[in-house]
Amino acid sequence: MSCYSLSPTSAPSLASSSAPASPPRQLQRRLLRPYPADRDMTLSDTTNLSVPSSKSTMDERKRSIQPDSDDIYPSKRHQTSQNAPQMRMDSEKEKDVESFQKDAILRQMKEYKREKALYESQVQDLSKRSQHHDDHLRIVDAWFTQLLDEIRILVGDLVSDQEPEAGELFNSSLLFEDNSLFDTHLKNRSSKIKAAIKDVFGRLPAAEPEVRSLQERLAALLAAEKAHLIERQRISGECDQLSERLEQASYRYLLAEKKLDRAKSAQVQKLERQATMGGHSESSSSSEKKSVKSEAAETNGEVDGAIHAAAETARREALAASEKRKLQMEQLEAENKRLTEELTSAKVRLTSLSDDDYAKTDLYKLLKSQHEEIIKRVNDLEATNLQLREEAQRLQAERTSYRNNMEEESQTNTTDLETQLARAESDLARIRNARDELSAELSVRKGSQDQSQLASDSVKELAAARETRIAALESEVERLKLQIGESTASSSNEVIENMTIDELKSQLKTLENRHLLLNNELPSMEAAWKKAKGLAERKVSEILEWEEQRTRIHAEKAKADQKYFAAMKAKEARENELRTLKAQNAKSSEIVTQLKDAENNSRSLIINLEKQISESKESLTSLSQQNRTMQQKLSEGNLTLEKLRTQITDMKKIVVSKDTASSTAASAKRQAEVELEEVKVRLEDTKKSLDSMKRKGSGRESESDDWRRHAYHIVNEYVLVTYVDTHCELGHTNVTNPGNADDGSLLLSVYTTSDYDI
């Protein structure tokens, strides 16, 4: 299972996180056993999984866990200690602990995978950003270098007699003193830029104060524009991020809305649809009613009646205007015919352009020069391509020979290292056996020394107990002596009664002496009894320990014999496996020779294929170069075509504007001429009416008002005729007469040519 393939660096953290306390020694040694073949865990990984305990024995200090093939199984001492009945754990508990550790390892591995995916995405994002920033910095650096070079060239070309101070001429805004962002980015190049710009501005001629103030204002505005552009770019980036978040939120909203729509029933949707249809019908009916009312509310305009005389004058005016318009139409038809002929001739010439016409264009000259330059570059590239092809073939041959040499050297080094490794492993096994023997001998000697020391201590304690016993026996002898004297003294009570006072005193003294002797005898006897009791208990415990040790040693001997026989059986199995492996090795050597022959054949085939690939790559590069050149030509042609198209559109706009202006002027002129004819007709009518009025005379008082009205009308007509005669040739005045006013008043309305509605 792939979940057990742990790295050496991550395994200790897993062990520390999954197991809060150190597991038992038996579980640690169990973890050190080799996993089956289906589990992808190496010995180094398993060694890192073992959690060290707080107590370290002498064997652990002597032997360190190493990923060797000889140290897969623990030593005899470890096996005997872990297989002891009192230190053994239940099989169910062992399985539970193993499953618990496996689950902990699996959970930690999943956590590491999630963190790995997150870190990889962050690294990719940071790499993209760093690449973008590096490209940006390189471009800015190149731009600054180009700017300095151009300024130096400009300064070298300028020649000025007067060289005033640079600060007096122009206050530059390239430094962006009020912007911290530009100041931090341009701090490294500020000195060079200052010097170059001051030199340029120092060589420029002195300008007027107004021009200088305008220049300073323009520079400040440009600097503010740059700052605003950078701020706008930052805000646009933030806006893009927010728009992405908005799209995600809208997508989630749409999903939620779909779920909500699914949750609704069909009956509710039907009712909502009926409600919406009813609202639409009501709104449509109300709008129709409103439209009918508005149409009914509209009223017709007032219709003015016409007088017979006015109708006659209008007819004559219309006849004069029609004749004038007929003349104008004939002129327009002739002009239109001439323009159409010129247009057809220009179209024919445009469709049938000759090579000379194309050769005279700037685009043809540019393309011709570029074509010649590209031909030269292609010739140079073909020559270099031949050289590079020969060099590539030579390097390919050198690479194959070098590869063969390196493979042979690596094989020889591998065999040498394998022999050295086998020798080192055998030496290591011998050294470990010697070390185990020495450690066993040392432990035996230490045990014998401890036993001799215990025996000497017990002898000393027995001697001390003997001394105390001797003292107790001496006091007992004295007491017995006194008892013997007492028995003689108390032979009869009569004798005591018959004794004198001196005799009684002597008897009392003897009794007191006996009492003192007993008091002296009791502590020594008690101490001797306690020492004898302790020695006896210690001896009994030692005898019990010796018996227990003897039984354990017998059990260990039986286990060791069993393991010895198992090791002998394993040795015989290993010898059989070794014989089979030797036979397989002989067969595999033959297979290896066959594989080497096949490898040589495949190498030759690979070399041929690589040559073919190199040739195809060269042809592909040549084709791509040709494609790039053609694309460059096409892009240049497109650029020139776009320039010409923009020029044509600009010219078309100019021509259209001129045509509209001329057409409006001509239409205004024609309208003025028509109105002039109408005014002339009305003038003739007024003159005739004036003559008739003069013939009638001034007989009646009632006709005086009519005469005044006609006179006022004549004066107005005269003023109008003079105004039109003076302004009709300019083409920007329009004079209209209502013609139906009863009071004879004349309304003059003047319009400019641009505002006149044709």
Automatic annotation (TrEMBL):
GO terms for molecular function: ubiquitin protein ligase activity; zinc ion binding. It catalyses: S-ubiquitinyl-[E2 ubiquitin-conjugating enzyme]-L-cysteine + [acceptor protein]-L-lysine = [E2 ubiquitin-conjugating enzyme]-L-cysteine + N(6)-ubiquitinyl-[acceptor protein]-L-lysine. The keyword Ligase does not apply. Residues 125-263 form the BRE1-like coiled-coil containing domain. Its main location: nucleus. Pathway: Protein modification; protein ubiquitination. It is found in: Nucleus. Residues 89-99, 287-296 have a biased composition (Basic and acidic residues). One of its GO terms (biological process) is chromatin organization. Residues 1-99, 266-304 are annotated as: Disordered. Belongs to the BRE1 family. This is E3 ubiquitin protein ligase. It comes from Aureobasidium pullulans (Black yeast). The lineage of its organism: Eukaryota, Fungi, Dikarya, Ascomycota, Pezizomycotina.
